[in-house]
Q: What sequence folds into this?
Protein backbone atom coordinates (compact mmCIF):
# COMPACT_ATOMS: atom_id res chain seq x y z
CA UNK A 1 0.00 0.00 0.00
CA UNK A 2 1.21 3.44 -0.98
CA UNK A 3 -0.12 6.83 0.16
CA UNK A 4 -2.61 6.72 -2.73
CA UNK A 5 -4.20 3.45 -1.59
CA UNK A 6 -4.21 4.56 2.05
CA UNK A 7 -5.95 7.82 1.13
CA UNK A 8 -8.51 5.89 -0.90
CA UNK A 9 -9.33 3.67 2.10
CA UNK A 10 -9.62 6.68 4.40
CA UNK A 11 -11.99 8.41 1.98
CA UNK A 12 -14.24 5.33 1.89
CA UNK A 13 -15.07 6.06 5.52
CA UNK A 14 -15.77 9.77 4.98
CA UNK A 15 -19.35 11.06 4.81
CA UNK A 16 -19.93 14.74 5.63
CA UNK A 17 -16.68 15.47 7.51
CA UNK A 18 -14.43 18.42 6.66
CA UNK A 19 -11.14 17.15 5.23
CA UNK A 20 -7.96 19.26 5.24
CA UNK A 21 -5.11 17.88 3.15
CA UNK A 22 -1.33 18.19 3.17
CA UNK A 23 0.59 20.12 0.50
CA UNK A 24 1.70 18.72 -2.86
CA UNK A 25 1.08 15.26 -4.24
CA UNK A 26 -1.12 14.17 -1.31
CA UNK A 27 -3.62 16.92 -2.19
CA UNK A 28 -3.41 16.09 -5.88
CA UNK A 29 -4.11 12.44 -5.13
CA UNK A 30 -7.05 13.32 -2.91
CA UNK A 31 -8.47 15.48 -5.70
CA UNK A 32 -8.33 12.48 -8.07
CA UNK A 33 -9.65 9.99 -5.49
CA UNK A 34 -12.61 12.03 -4.33
CA UNK A 35 -12.97 15.74 -4.91
CA UNK A 36 -15.76 17.28 -2.83
CA UNK A 37 -16.63 20.78 -1.51
CA UNK A 38 -15.75 19.69 2.03
CA UNK A 39 -12.10 19.19 1.01
CA UNK A 40 -9.62 21.96 1.72
CA UNK A 41 -6.48 21.54 -0.37
CA UNK A 42 -3.74 23.36 1.53
CA UNK A 43 -1.35 24.14 -1.30
CA UNK A 44 1.56 26.07 0.15
CA UNK A 45 2.07 26.00 3.90
CA UNK A 46 3.91 22.78 4.64
CA UNK A 47 2.95 21.53 8.10
CA UNK A 48 -0.07 23.72 8.65
CA UNK A 49 -2.85 21.34 7.57
CA UNK A 50 -3.03 19.95 11.12
CA UNK A 51 -3.24 23.48 12.55
CA UNK A 52 -5.89 24.61 10.05
CA UNK A 53 -7.93 21.54 11.00
CA UNK A 54 -7.50 22.39 14.67
CA UNK A 55 -8.84 25.92 14.11
CA UNK A 56 -11.81 24.49 12.23
CA UNK A 57 -12.54 21.95 14.97
CA UNK A 58 -12.42 24.71 17.61
CA UNK A 59 -14.85 26.91 15.67
CA UNK A 60 -17.71 24.72 14.48
CA UNK A 61 -19.36 21.34 15.20
CA UNK A 62 -18.68 19.29 12.07
CA UNK A 63 -16.04 16.60 12.43
CA UNK A 64 -12.65 17.49 11.02
CA UNK A 65 -10.27 15.00 9.44
CA UNK A 66 -6.74 16.10 8.58
CA UNK A 67 -4.61 14.15 6.10
CA UNK A 68 -0.99 14.91 6.94
CA UNK A 69 2.41 13.65 5.87
CA UNK A 70 5.20 12.61 8.21
CA UNK A 71 7.53 15.29 6.79
CA UNK A 72 4.91 17.98 7.27
CA UNK A 73 4.22 16.93 10.86
CA UNK A 74 7.95 16.98 11.59
CA UNK A 75 8.02 20.60 10.36
CA UNK A 76 5.20 21.71 12.66
CA UNK A 77 5.45 19.22 15.51
CA UNK A 78 4.56 21.87 18.09
CA UNK A 79 0.96 21.83 16.95
CA UNK A 80 0.63 18.30 18.41
CA UNK A 81 1.20 19.91 21.82
CA UNK A 82 -1.55 22.45 21.09
CA UNK A 83 -3.90 19.66 19.98
CA UNK A 84 -3.17 17.82 23.25
CA UNK A 85 -3.93 21.00 25.18
CA UNK A 86 -7.11 22.11 23.39
CA UNK A 87 -8.49 18.56 23.06
CA UNK A 88 -11.23 19.12 20.46
CA UNK A 89 -13.58 16.10 20.43
CA UNK A 90 -14.35 16.50 16.72
CA UNK A 91 -10.74 16.25 15.51
CA UNK A 92 -9.01 13.31 13.82
CA UNK A 93 -5.44 13.69 12.57
CA UNK A 94 -4.37 11.00 10.10
CA UNK A 95 -0.65 10.93 9.39
CA UNK A 96 0.18 9.00 6.25
CA UNK A 97 3.71 7.96 7.07
CA UNK A 98 5.62 6.92 3.96
CA UNK A 99 8.92 7.71 5.67
CA UNK A 100 9.70 10.06 2.79
CA UNK A 101 9.38 13.65 1.61
CA UNK A 102 7.22 12.42 -1.24
CA UNK A 103 6.42 15.53 -3.28
CA UNK A 104 10.06 16.54 -3.57
CA UNK A 105 11.47 13.24 -4.77
CA UNK A 106 10.95 10.76 -1.93
CA UNK A 107 13.98 11.73 0.13
CA UNK A 108 14.06 9.79 3.44
CA UNK A 109 12.33 11.65 6.26
CA UNK A 110 12.97 11.37 9.98
CA UNK A 111 10.45 8.57 10.47
CA UNK A 112 12.65 6.39 8.24
CA UNK A 113 15.18 6.37 11.05
CA UNK A 114 14.67 7.89 14.48
CA UNK A 115 11.26 9.58 14.75
CA UNK A 116 8.07 7.86 15.99
CA UNK A 117 5.14 10.19 15.52
CA UNK A 118 2.66 7.98 17.40
CA UNK A 119 4.89 8.25 20.47
CA UNK A 120 5.16 12.02 20.03
CA UNK A 121 1.38 12.34 19.84
CA UNK A 122 1.01 10.30 23.03
CA UNK A 123 3.64 12.40 24.76
CA UNK A 124 1.64 15.48 23.78
CA UNK A 125 -1.34 14.20 25.73
CA UNK A 126 -3.38 12.63 22.93
CA UNK A 127 -4.87 9.48 24.46
CA UNK A 128 -6.37 7.87 21.39
CA UNK A 129 -3.46 7.07 19.11
CA UNK A 130 -3.63 4.20 16.59
CA UNK A 131 -0.87 2.77 14.45
CA UNK A 132 -1.99 0.97 11.28
CA UNK A 133 0.08 -0.87 8.69
CA UNK A 134 -2.44 -3.01 6.79
CA UNK A 135 -4.75 -1.60 4.14
CA UNK A 136 -7.81 -3.63 5.15
CA UNK A 137 -7.81 -2.11 8.64
CA UNK A 138 -7.95 1.51 7.50
CA UNK A 139 -11.61 2.02 6.54
CA UNK A 140 -13.04 0.34 9.68
CA UNK A 141 -10.58 2.16 11.92
CA UNK A 142 -11.53 5.55 10.48
CA UNK A 143 -15.23 4.69 10.75
CA UNK A 144 -14.75 3.74 14.37
CA UNK A 145 -12.78 6.90 15.11
CA UNK A 146 -15.43 9.10 13.53
CA UNK A 147 -18.23 7.26 15.31
CA UNK A 148 -16.71 7.81 18.71
CA UNK A 149 -16.40 11.62 18.61
CA UNK A 150 -14.05 11.30 21.54
CA UNK A 151 -11.16 13.21 20.13
CA UNK A 152 -8.65 14.36 19.69
CA UNK A 153 -7.49 11.25 17.90
CA UNK A 154 -4.32 10.58 15.95
CA UNK A 155 -3.92 7.72 13.48
CA UNK A 156 -0.54 6.91 11.96
CA UNK A 157 -0.74 4.82 8.78
CA UNK A 158 2.55 3.27 7.71
CA UNK A 159 2.86 2.99 3.91
CA UNK A 160 5.36 2.21 1.18
CA UNK A 161 6.87 5.01 -0.87
CA UNK A 162 5.91 5.92 -4.43
CA UNK A 163 2.76 7.09 -6.21
CA UNK A 164 0.75 6.36 -9.36
CA UNK A 165 1.69 8.01 -12.67
CA UNK A 166 -0.43 10.73 -14.20
CA UNK A 167 -1.39 12.70 -11.06
CA UNK A 168 -1.38 16.40 -11.99
CA UNK A 169 -1.97 19.82 -10.45
CA UNK A 170 -5.39 20.68 -9.06
CA UNK A 171 -7.33 22.82 -11.56
CA UNK A 172 -8.62 25.28 -8.94
CA UNK A 173 -7.10 28.45 -7.52
CA UNK A 174 -6.87 29.38 -3.86
CA UNK A 175 -9.94 31.57 -3.80
CA UNK A 176 -11.97 28.90 -5.59
CA UNK A 177 -10.92 26.24 -3.09
CA UNK A 178 -11.58 28.54 -0.15
CA UNK A 179 -14.98 29.81 -1.28
CA UNK A 180 -16.30 26.36 -2.07
CA UNK A 181 -15.01 25.04 1.26
CA UNK A 182 -16.52 27.93 3.23
CA UNK A 183 -19.89 27.43 1.56
CA UNK A 184 -19.71 23.72 2.51
CA UNK A 185 -19.11 24.69 6.13
CA UNK A 186 -22.01 27.10 5.92
CA UNK A 187 -20.66 29.41 8.62
CA UNK B 1 -8.59 52.03 32.11
CA UNK B 2 -5.16 50.65 31.33
CA UNK B 3 -3.90 50.76 27.71
CA UNK B 4 -4.57 47.01 27.52
CA UNK B 5 -8.18 47.43 28.69
CA UNK B 6 -8.74 50.19 26.15
CA UNK B 7 -7.26 48.11 23.37
CA UNK B 8 -9.30 45.05 24.32
CA UNK B 9 -12.50 47.08 24.29
CA UNK B 10 -11.75 48.15 20.70
CA UNK B 11 -11.01 44.58 19.62
CA UNK B 12 -14.29 43.32 21.04
CA UNK B 13 -16.14 46.27 19.48
CA UNK B 14 -14.78 45.01 16.15
CA UNK B 15 -16.03 41.52 17.05
CA UNK B 16 -12.65 39.82 17.21
CA UNK B 17 -13.66 36.54 18.81
CA UNK B 18 -10.82 34.05 18.29
CA UNK B 19 -7.31 34.63 19.64
CA UNK B 20 -4.06 32.72 19.82
CA UNK B 21 -0.90 33.97 21.48
CA UNK B 22 2.78 33.55 22.13
CA UNK B 23 3.83 35.51 25.23
CA UNK B 24 5.67 38.82 25.46
CA UNK B 25 6.24 40.74 28.68
CA UNK B 26 4.35 43.69 27.21
CA UNK B 27 1.36 41.44 26.45
CA UNK B 28 1.04 39.81 29.87
CA UNK B 29 -2.09 41.76 30.84
CA UNK B 30 -3.76 41.17 27.48
CA UNK B 31 -3.09 37.44 27.66
CA UNK B 32 -4.66 37.31 31.14
CA UNK B 33 -7.71 38.95 29.64
CA UNK B 34 -7.91 36.32 26.91
CA UNK B 35 -7.62 33.50 29.44
CA UNK B 36 -10.50 34.89 31.49
CA UNK B 37 -13.01 35.97 28.83
CA UNK B 38 -15.73 33.32 28.37
CA UNK B 39 -17.08 35.07 25.26
CA UNK B 40 -14.10 34.32 23.03
CA UNK B 41 -12.13 31.27 21.89
CA UNK B 42 -8.50 31.32 22.95
CA UNK B 43 -5.47 29.08 23.06
CA UNK B 44 -1.76 29.62 23.47
CA UNK B 45 0.29 28.22 20.58
CA UNK B 46 3.84 26.89 20.35
CA UNK B 47 4.88 29.06 17.40
CA UNK B 48 3.35 31.99 15.53
CA UNK B 49 3.25 30.14 12.18
CA UNK B 50 1.18 27.39 13.76
CA UNK B 51 -1.07 30.13 15.10
CA UNK B 52 -1.77 31.40 11.59
CA UNK B 53 -2.84 27.89 10.55
CA UNK B 54 -5.29 27.71 13.45
CA UNK B 55 -6.60 31.20 12.73
CA UNK B 56 -7.09 30.37 9.04
CA UNK B 57 -9.27 27.41 10.05
CA UNK B 58 -11.20 29.63 12.45
CA UNK B 59 -11.76 32.28 9.76
CA UNK B 60 -13.12 29.75 7.30
CA UNK B 61 -15.56 28.63 10.00
CA UNK B 62 -16.83 32.19 10.43
CA UNK B 63 -14.64 33.62 13.20
CA UNK B 64 -12.78 36.95 13.27
CA UNK B 65 -9.29 35.89 14.34
CA UNK B 66 -6.24 37.61 15.83
CA UNK B 67 -2.66 36.59 16.62
CA UNK B 68 -1.14 38.13 19.76
CA UNK B 69 2.66 38.10 19.64
CA UNK B 70 5.82 40.16 19.79
CA UNK B 71 7.42 41.45 16.62
CA UNK B 72 10.07 38.72 16.60
CA UNK B 73 7.20 36.30 16.04
CA UNK B 74 6.43 37.92 12.72
CA UNK B 75 9.65 36.40 11.44
CA UNK B 76 8.20 32.99 12.25
CA UNK B 77 5.16 33.57 10.04
CA UNK B 78 6.46 34.70 6.65
CA UNK B 79 5.75 31.59 4.55
CA UNK B 80 2.28 31.22 6.04
CA UNK B 81 1.51 34.91 5.45
CA UNK B 82 2.26 34.44 1.74
CA UNK B 83 1.13 30.91 1.00
CA UNK B 84 -1.86 30.74 3.34
CA UNK B 85 -3.19 34.24 4.12
CA UNK B 86 -2.45 35.93 0.80
CA UNK B 87 -2.99 32.94 -1.47
CA UNK B 88 -6.35 31.96 0.05
CA UNK B 89 -7.32 35.55 0.96
CA UNK B 90 -7.65 35.02 4.69
CA UNK B 91 -7.70 38.17 6.84
CA UNK B 92 -5.97 37.89 10.21
CA UNK B 93 -5.26 40.64 12.72
CA UNK B 94 -1.69 40.74 14.06
CA UNK B 95 -1.51 42.37 17.49
CA UNK B 96 2.20 42.91 17.79
CA UNK B 97 4.12 44.32 20.73
CA UNK B 98 7.08 46.15 19.22
CA UNK B 99 10.27 45.22 21.03
CA UNK B 100 13.25 47.18 19.79
CA UNK B 101 11.18 50.35 19.62
CA UNK B 102 12.15 53.55 21.50
CA UNK B 103 12.87 52.65 25.14
CA UNK B 104 14.04 49.08 24.48
CA UNK B 105 16.45 47.97 27.22
CA UNK B 106 17.68 44.80 25.47
CA UNK B 107 20.03 45.58 22.63
CA UNK B 108 19.53 42.17 21.01
CA UNK B 109 15.89 43.11 20.26
CA UNK B 110 16.91 46.03 18.01
CA UNK B 111 17.69 44.09 14.83
CA UNK B 112 14.33 42.38 14.49
CA UNK B 113 12.72 45.52 15.87
CA UNK B 114 14.01 47.47 12.88
CA UNK B 115 13.15 44.67 10.43
CA UNK B 116 9.50 44.16 11.27
CA UNK B 117 8.04 47.08 9.29
CA UNK B 118 9.92 46.32 6.05
CA UNK B 119 9.04 42.65 6.49
CA UNK B 120 5.33 43.40 6.80
CA UNK B 121 5.55 45.66 3.75
CA UNK B 122 7.38 42.97 1.77
CA UNK B 123 4.60 40.44 2.31
CA UNK B 124 1.73 42.93 1.85
CA UNK B 125 0.54 43.06 5.43
CA UNK B 126 -1.08 46.44 6.06
CA UNK B 127 1.22 47.81 8.82
CA UNK B 128 -0.25 50.30 11.29
CA UNK B 129 1.67 51.76 14.23
CA UNK B 130 -0.31 52.70 17.31
CA UNK B 131 1.95 54.90 19.44
CA UNK B 132 -0.57 55.75 22.19
CA UNK B 133 -4.12 55.08 23.33
CA UNK B 134 -5.12 58.35 21.63
CA UNK B 135 -4.59 56.54 18.32
CA UNK B 136 -6.83 53.56 19.03
CA UNK B 137 -9.33 54.58 16.34
CA UNK B 138 -6.71 53.28 13.92
CA UNK B 139 -7.20 49.81 15.33
CA UNK B 140 -10.92 49.81 14.65
CA UNK B 141 -10.46 51.29 11.16
CA UNK B 142 -7.69 48.84 10.32
CA UNK B 143 -9.67 45.81 11.44
CA UNK B 144 -12.76 46.88 9.52
CA UNK B 145 -10.64 47.34 6.39
CA UNK B 146 -8.91 43.97 6.83
CA UNK B 147 -12.15 42.00 6.85
CA UNK B 148 -13.61 44.09 4.03
CA UNK B 149 -10.60 43.58 1.75
CA UNK B 150 -9.70 40.10 3.12
CA UNK B 151 -6.15 41.27 3.62
CA UNK B 152 -4.18 40.82 6.86
CA UNK B 153 -3.48 43.84 9.06
CA UNK B 154 -0.45 44.18 11.35
CA UNK B 155 -0.64 46.54 14.33
CA UNK B 156 2.59 47.51 16.03
CA UNK B 157 2.35 48.66 19.64
CA UNK B 158 5.68 50.21 20.76
CA UNK B 159 6.76 50.79 24.37
CA UNK B 160 5.10 54.23 24.29
CA UNK B 161 1.69 52.57 23.88
CA UNK B 162 2.02 50.20 26.83
CA UNK B 163 3.58 52.82 29.09
CA UNK B 164 0.90 55.40 28.29
CA UNK B 165 -1.30 56.78 31.07
CA UNK B 166 -4.87 55.95 31.99
C1 LIG C 1 8.45 25.53 3.99
C2 LIG C 1 8.60 24.54 2.93
N1 LIG C 1 9.71 23.77 2.85
C3 LIG C 1 9.83 22.83 1.89
C4 LIG C 1 8.84 22.66 0.96
C5 LIG C 1 8.98 21.62 -0.13
N2 LIG C 1 8.09 20.48 0.09
C6 LIG C 1 6.85 20.41 -0.45
S1 LIG C 1 6.06 19.02 -0.12
C7 LIG C 1 7.38 18.42 0.74
C8 LIG C 1 7.38 17.03 1.30
C9 LIG C 1 6.29 16.75 2.27
O1 LIG C 1 6.47 15.44 2.76
P1 LIG C 1 5.37 14.74 3.63
O2 LIG C 1 4.65 15.72 4.44
O3 LIG C 1 5.98 13.59 4.33
O4 LIG C 1 4.29 14.22 2.56
P2 LIG C 1 4.44 13.14 1.40
O5 LIG C 1 4.55 13.94 0.13
O6 LIG C 1 5.62 12.28 1.67
O7 LIG C 1 3.18 12.38 1.44
C10 LIG C 1 8.43 19.36 0.78
C11 LIG C 1 9.72 19.13 1.45
C12 LIG C 1 7.71 23.50 1.07
N3 LIG C 1 6.68 23.41 0.23
N4 LIG C 1 7.61 24.40 2.04
A:
Amino acid sequence: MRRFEATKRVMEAITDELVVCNIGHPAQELFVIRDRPENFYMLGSMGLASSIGLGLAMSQDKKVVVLEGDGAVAMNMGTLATIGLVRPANYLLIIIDNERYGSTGFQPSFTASNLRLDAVAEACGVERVTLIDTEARITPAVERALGANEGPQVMVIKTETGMPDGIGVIPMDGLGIRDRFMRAIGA
Amino acid sequence: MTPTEQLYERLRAQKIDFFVSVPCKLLAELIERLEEDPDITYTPVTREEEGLGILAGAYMAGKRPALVMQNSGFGNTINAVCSLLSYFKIPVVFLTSHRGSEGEPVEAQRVMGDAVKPLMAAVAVDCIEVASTAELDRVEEGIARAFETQNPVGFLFPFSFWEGGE
In short: Chain B has one domain: 3-162. Chain B has seven helices and six strands. Strands of chain B lie at 18-21, 41-44, 65-70, 93-97, 126-129, 153-157. The mean pLDDT of chain B is 97.
